[in-house]
User: What shape does this take?
Amino acid sequence: MKNNIPDDKLHEECGVFGIYANEGTKVAHDIYCGLIALQHRGQESAGISVTDTAGPKGNIVTKKGMGLVSEVFTGKNIETLNGNVGVGHVRYSTTGGSVPENAQPIAMNYIKGTLALVHNGNIINAGKLKEEQVLRGQAHYTSSDTEVLAYEIVSERVHSSSIEEAVKKAAAGLKGGYACLIMSPRKLVAVRDPYGLKPLVLGKKAGAYIIASESAAVNSVGGELLRDIEPGEIVTIDKDGIRSDTSLCNGRQAHCVFEYIYFARVDSVMDGVSVHDARIRAGRALARRHPVEADIVAGVPDSGLPAAEGYAYESAIPFALAFHKNSYVGRSFIKPTDEERRNAVHMKLSVLVPVVKGKRVVLIDDSIVRGTTMRQIIIMLRNAGATEVHVRISSPPFLYPCYYGTDVPSSGQLIASEHSSEEVCKSIGADTLGYLGLEDLKTMAGDLPVCSACFDNIYPVK
Assistant: This one.
């Protein structure tokens, strides 16, 4: 069972990164750098698989473990990964426990060769697929949905002429949100769910193609963003270049809106929308919907800062940096008790007293999940001399669970599901509270079709 999340934030399941380079090129270091750029998407485990240039032809070498990318990989073990094709993964578990057995990539040997797979998202019909695999003697009852996906591809590969054909057959039977990379010793294949719930982009650098969860990861290795992988698209990269299969694309898109609210790095561009610009627009919409008289606008680092800038632009109230964030707390922030959660907030954030003393503060954050962290931050602001604290949230109230790979607690743990806005405002100790409106989400995302099921109970995939 997973401990409560002390920083009171939702977490995405993971990030993926893959690269196909010219023969003789070592890609492991670029994968390492790409995973560092995606570390915000998962901090529980990390892994890399590459082609095995030293061993028997057709082998894949995998190194993975629990912890941050920098804890799992050192200069010494990176040097042992010598292939020109590879995939990498960072994980935050939503299905399957946080144990070494569930770390990715998943590497498999089968009758026609070997493959390694990395996956971001959640296969909602994995239970049914698993039952069928168990009956075939292929999987076991404790398989994660990523292993189930790997077994589906292996099963189809036996009756297919290529790995990309097997991926297509397997993907046709999947339901949920997913972005997957599958490598064989000679190919890199990417597939994105038909609704585009999970992000996946294509990039390029000298002599190599890159596929990653976010454009920021492509940029981190000196690459150039080419485009997004289309929802439902299967992209294959090998020695002959790049090929696209769009036969599974259905035209009904529903991109996860929380990528723009919180998950993605602020310097990423997803499906043609700048994450930074989306958060600025959210802040502007908040100022129009919930104006208030105040002296400064401050954001909770980091994702609350662009929305705070947007609120300041629209309201003409000065923007101020009111917090110092300690970036070196590490993974020890996962704490099981209320007291330890309170201490964790103080470890991560401190208030700049001269900035807030005697001031009426508009405090911007991206979400309220349980309310525990916001309550502590407001206490810190008042102790530092803030005379008023007006909370503005750059998302609507969380009311419903997510089934597509986001770690949303049960409705009973979502404070907005159990309490009115007035009750939440009183509980967290704010003077006023205002949320982004549901109708503002499309404006924030630049009219991109979005999934907002955690706010409105409308699920695109069932």
